[in-house]
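Example noted here:
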Amino acid sequence: MKNFTLNEILKQTGGDLCYGSGNPVIKHAINYAKRDIEDHTLIFHLDREPIRGKYWKGNHSIVVITDQPELCTNLEENIILVKTAQLEDAYWKFIEYYRGLFDLPVIGVTGTCGKTTTKEMIRQILIEDYKVKATWMSMNSMSVNLRYLTGIDDTTEVAVFEMPVAYPGYLKVACRYFQPQIRILLNIGVHHLADCETPEEYMKAKAEIVEGLDPNSGILILNADDENIKKVVDVSPFKGVVYVGKNDGSQFQAKNIKYANGGMAFTLKHENKEYNAFIPGYGEHNVYNALAAIAAVFYVGVDISVAIQRLSLFEQVEEHLEFKRGMNECTVINDTWNSSPLSMATALKVLGDMSKEKRSIALLGYMPQLGEGPHAIKQYEEMGKKAAESKIDILVVVGDEAKAIGTGALTYGMDPNKVYFCNTGDEVYDVLAPYLNENTILLLKVTHRVMKKPTFKQLRNKLIPDNEE
């Protein structure tokens, strides 16, 4: 974080000292009070939980901005209390002031699937030439926005952040924090129905990617082949709309896509020039991710041929369609970081594409962000249909929440002798073990928190022995 004196911050946010004195240097900012805190920290008391200053007895230069000073008691002399009438306004004034200090390219990435992979592609291309600030792994919730924003400092040259949707307004807030001039919308499937009442509401929430984008100078990178994007995103106000995809209208177009050794090969066409490209990691979805990444860095200033060369060395994200050597020399596709209908459908397609001469098994389970209710059940049933259409040999469904995957597969004609319903890791292992050998490909598409006895981590380590920690 760029350092400020308290007086500089108060000049931008307002507020009056009501306890303590001085003009300390502020080196950190957080938006809730916690016991473990660094010296020289500014706290915006947004959670309005009682603050007991004794928590920070050994700290130096702690400043609390609050609209309820009566909640702050037993304050030590090292604490300064600032009272403001409008805490949220003061907070956003600070955010907008801080962001406004930096004139650098900021890239925002959203989509139902592929955010982390695309962000990592962009980051790995850029770090050869720039000091890059980026989302850490897949940690992209609203709770870390302030940390990421204040991670930008005078040494930062480019920033790239994932911006998810949990509910309507969520993405709009991320846009307000980061104010990205280059924005990517990879795809819109169905996800987070636990917080969006209908699939349509979720789709509209993704369209918030355009909030605050400058219509003249902003760059909006969209998947030309995604029908849901066309339904909800109004591009008419924006001059810098860039399409990626297989569609002939795409400025960054992928042609001749095929599976190759260790990944996907394709031809990239841009402005009547063609480039041979390769991206490690299987599946056509990875080509879309690569197109979006290449387009984004192109508008930062990286030559397309350079971006393609660097992507050929891309280090895949863990637990995102990772191919592993498994038990009894089987092949395991580890896609367990998270699960949504779009990512499950994508994983089933990769399994089908990669198992032409081998036995295919899919272990599918609960998708936490779908929640419950008729819309969620419909999505589980649709995944059963996808499994049946994929012609996989064995389907194993784990957990009562996901049972509709199995019943859906049966409805769409899958052999009942090839569909198994399990509730524990022991049951899953007993079903899988007899099938696992060098002629089997096993897809693991369940989230970490889906099973007990043993835990999923323990089961995974049995199925992928080299993965054991």
Observations:
- The two ends are 35 Å apart (CA to CA).
- The longest strand covers residues 252-260.
- The first helix runs from residue 6 to 13.
